[in-house]
Write a sequence for this structure.
């Protein structure tokens, strides 16, 4: 007997909506919009992010579950980058009628599972037909106004903090495309890298440590979803400052060191992208406290300077400083 | 001399973002998200809507400006349908690299012009590459918690109010596709119909009248973006009630009467869609006050009943009541 999978066009929009409502809180569904409360005195933070088939994900390296997880993680990371705790997300989905219903359900499972870890949920959405699968998410969060983290808030003398290792997502992709390259790694090391690519974690856990280490605030920062180099460059551009990054202070994960050369590890750390760590700029002593609180992978990697260029220096050698540019960064067009 | 238009891929993501920032408030751009305040005591309302090329719009009948206008109007209408005043929208845009930059600028002009009319703006966005143009919007508004309009709030005995004429958008589309059919209409009548299709108006203007006419609230309702029949059916389904619609009470615009037969005008009024009026259920005497306050096109069109079916009756004739269904309504797949 031949069971062909149920397709979106078989159950139509209403049928699909009914299935997907299982992934949303019961009290929220059915109206034109979702209603919820922002804590008194808090500001609302809104971010949006669009994922497109064959641009941001492909069936070859990503399951529908992981597409959902990564879409949720990317949006929660944008909230974390502003210092905000999540209130919910909406999902605008465009998809072809001949897509399997199970693909859409797995996408929602991935979204819901990731959101659950951070005690938030899908609060609304829209579905329509398109030749290209597109997942457009808007995420809402709240933050006390004086705690908003902004790209423009970095000041000369600030320490530059990374909340974790970089290059792991890029390494995970490499292992998925060429499993033979990781044969000499322990199973658990392979898993760390692949998981960093498939199910990255937004660093919302860092925020309570940050408020404790530096309650006065005015923190500069953003997330490193487009790469560590991109984050430092964007922060410096928006703040009208420069930076010195100490090459030997960039934390390199043991699994990454084992997979590739030091040169390649540096390249992936700077330009790999999709690591979803936070890059934060604050005075050196709270920065030191913060790094200790976060632990594994967190480090002070450099200093904000007045001169408007970004230098990669190596204090242990006599080689000249390199100037960092976006030339190797990610371009969408 | 041959000037070929500038394409998105010529100026890349950063170049396009710079051009589009002209359409956003100055203080809001550059971070991962937008930050704003919800009035103390108000609830946040969030809605989302996705428009796809060749499904919701086509170059043949819609300019980029009108795509933008309609996208903004549809989302503001979703806010109005919940009783909320707008705070802002985010725009997630997917587009091919060989699209003209001017198309994207006109889209944003249409969005911004419509938002301006309702004193709100674009507060954030994301742009990425895709084979299919997709415009995903999330809109945010605020409403006092006891004023939230919900589909589930209709009660037997409520009057059913429409805030305006229906079928005009469908008639405008007909005139755009077959201009010869409208030759016997006055110029201004043609304009009314075409404008209803190209630049529909969300009924945010109705809300102050509604609060004044019925301050106690618990209002049932939604907008008629998928058609008047669809709105009545959805409200009845969510509220577990039925309705009687009086055929002779359905307001028909003079321009529509002149364009088509009474039968066709009824069909377009019920199933045409994209009129973006509000369908509201509240007790008869505040309903009457509301209709008088709104004026032109507003009317009480029927009554909410306990029996769970929707009847279209004609009190002036002996013909039997018709049962309304969604069979002729809009399906996305």
């Amino acid at each position: 007997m031949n069971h062909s999978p149920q397709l979106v066009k078989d159950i139509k929009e209403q049928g699909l909506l009914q299935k997907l409502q299982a992934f949303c809180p019961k009290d929220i569904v059915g109206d034109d919009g979702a209603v919820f409360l922002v804590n008194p005195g808090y500001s609302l933070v809104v971010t949006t992010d669009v994922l497109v088939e064959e641009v941001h994900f492909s069936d070859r390296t990503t399951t529908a579950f992981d597409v959902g997880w990564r879409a949720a993680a990317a949006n929660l990371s944008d909230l974390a980058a502003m210092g905000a705790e999540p209130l919910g997300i909406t999902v605008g989905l465009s998809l072809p009628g001949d897509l399997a219903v199970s693909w859409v359900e797995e996408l929602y499972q991935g979204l819901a599972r990731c959101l659950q870890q951070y005690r938030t949920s899908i609060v609304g959405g829209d579905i329509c037909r398109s030749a290209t699968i597109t997942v457009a998410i808007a995420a809402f969060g709240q933050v006390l106004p004086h705690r908003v983290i902004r790209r423009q808030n970095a000041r000369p003398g600030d320490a530059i903090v990374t909340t974790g290792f970089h290059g792991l997502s890029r390494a995970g992709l490499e292992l998925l495309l060429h499993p033979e390259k990781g044969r000499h790694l322990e199973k658990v090391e392979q898993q760390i890298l692949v998981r960093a690519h498939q199910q990255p974690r937004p660093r919302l856990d860092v925020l309570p440590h940050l408020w404790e280490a530096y309650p006065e605030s005015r923190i500069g920062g953003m997330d490193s979803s487009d790469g560590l180099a991109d984050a430092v460059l964007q922060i410096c551009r928006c703040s009208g400052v420069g930076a010195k990054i100490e090459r030997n202070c960039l934390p390199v994960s043991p699994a990454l060191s084992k997979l590739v050369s030091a040169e390649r590890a540096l390249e992936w750390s700077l330009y790999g992208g999709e690591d979803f760590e936070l890059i934060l700029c604050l005075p050196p002593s709270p920065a030191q406290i913060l790094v200790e609180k976060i632990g594994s992978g967190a480090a002070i990697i450099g200093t904000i300077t007045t001169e408007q260029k970004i230098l990669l220096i190596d204090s242990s050698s006599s080689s000249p400083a390199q100037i960092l540019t976006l030339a190797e960064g990610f371009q969408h067009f």
